[in-house]
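W.,

You were right to be curious about this one. When I first looked at the sequence I had no strong expectations either way, so I just let the prediction run and decided to look at it fresh. Below is the sequence, 259 residues in total, followed by the output.
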Amino acid sequence: MTTKPLLIVAGIGNGTGTGAATARVFSKQGYRVALIARNAEHLKKLADEITSAGAEAATFPLSEYTYEAMSNVWDTIMQHQWQSKEPSELRVALWNVGVNVFGSFLTITEKDIQASLEVHVTAGFAFSRKAVLTFKENALDANGSRGTLLFTGATASVRGNVFTSAFAAGKFGIRALSQSLAKEFGKENIHVAQVIIDGSILTDLSLSRRPGEVGEAWKANPDVHLNAESIAKSYLYLTEQDRSAWTWELDLRPAHEKW
């Protein structure tokens, strides 16, 4: 019996950003999509949109991003009975989770530090471990890969700044994990890639921070913001690379971003 490729996405926000866009793009390529997030309402809305377009999507809400919660929800996904009868084969996993912990250094609390490291790093370790173990069971595809593990990074993954000490600590950590995994498991034909999002993505949230005419002008100008669907297409490109030329880190920014 033929298998259907499966994409697992952790982190979809309110459905207007990178995680949701990736689910949409991959579903149009024939992937089943398993969606993980904390907001059940946003999950359902996105899954309904994807299924109404003729693809398959299932939701897996969790209350918090911890090592145990992530491990448990992954096991639930692997046991899920999809509507069509073909078995699933995990081919892509995207860690798109983040927690916005910002503030000047002297205002950062122990709770802030724990939140950043728990969500970005500890839960990311659990997600990565489950993905790698699952990929190891796969045969090589036409590009010589057993699967692709993707991480959404940020400017703070490579550069700390004022107000980002706690946030950057978590983002630096998950970047280091992605590099370590790429070096260790590339030898087993598992592709690991980290994508630096260096700029603001056009989402409902980012637009709400730019009210009035300023926001409308920013929205209308593709030179100054990232488009979530374009990011998702870059993720798809990474999964289609042949093993003779794999990317570990890719950075994406709008044309007029100052860097």
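Here's what jumped out at me. The chain has a mean pLDDT of 95. And, maybe more interesting for your project: Residues 110-135 form the longest helix (26 residues).

Coffee later to discuss?

I.
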